[in-house]
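so my prof wants the structure for this chain in the tokens format not the other one, which i didnt know existed until like an hour ago. anyway here's the sequence
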Amino acid sequence: MKNKIILILTILILLASCEYEPIYNNSKIKDIRFEFIEMEGDQQINKLIINNLKRNQKKLYSDIYKIKIKSKFNKVVLAKDKFGSPTDYKLSVTSNFGVENEQKKLSLVLNEEFIYKNLQENYDQSNYENTIKKNLAEQISEKLRTKLLTN
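here's what i got, hopefully its the right format
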């Protein structure tokens, strides 16, 4: 028990002394504005990414990032049963970003994948796929935001 307390105190002291600051606790998040100048590829994915990035935007900003998006959505059958019906799918979203502001110019490729089993009902299947698309787009937008804040 004493070892755990000593370890926790040591970690806290080291983190406090090295000026550790969480990424999302940074005030820079509030000072960013995204301007989307070009969109290609899957429009549904692009709109989801844009909405996720604009969600935390403030009206007062100091940095404007101009972003070009090119997204691609793929649905691949991974496995089939003995009758030839698909049992497993892989959904993947690949987004190419061209980002520029006054100080820097970046080109990023972000990819997210999800593997799932086939559902019996087509209606449930399409709803589940739409939910997965939303989640993948949210993960990509969070990765992009993190890259912009740390570079």
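also thought this was worth mentioning. The mean pLDDT is 85.
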